[in-house]
Design a protein that fits this description.
The chain has about 70 residues and is α+β, with helices and mostly antiparallel strands. Helix content is about 35%, strand content about 30%. Strand 2, helix 2 and strand 3 form a beta-alpha-beta unit. The radius of gyration is 12 Å and the shape is globular.
């Protein structure tokens, strides 16, 4: 699951360095990307959530919660 989350984010944000930890449906994600330059926190997080949304959709979604999402520039 960790690799699947990383893959989805890198597909959406190709220059991203992604760190994912957790399990049991709850994860901590850190994304570092130049794509975030000039964007506020909410805009940065929306880019990441859009990338992983299909993993969070539905009653049996493998990704239940993102306990911490850090999005920063290099």
């Amino acid at each position: 699951m960790l690799d699947q989350i990383k893959q989805k984010i890198v597909e959406a944000i190709p220059d991203a360095t992604v760190s994912v930890e957790g399990g049991g449906g709850h994860f901590t994600i850190e994304v570092i990307s130049a794509t975030f330059e000039g964007k506020n926190t909410l805009q940065r997080q929306r880019l990441v959530y859009k990338a992983i949304w299909d993993l969070m959709a539905g009653d049996n979604a493998p990704l239940h919660a993102v306990d911490s999402l850090v999005c920063k520039t290099p």
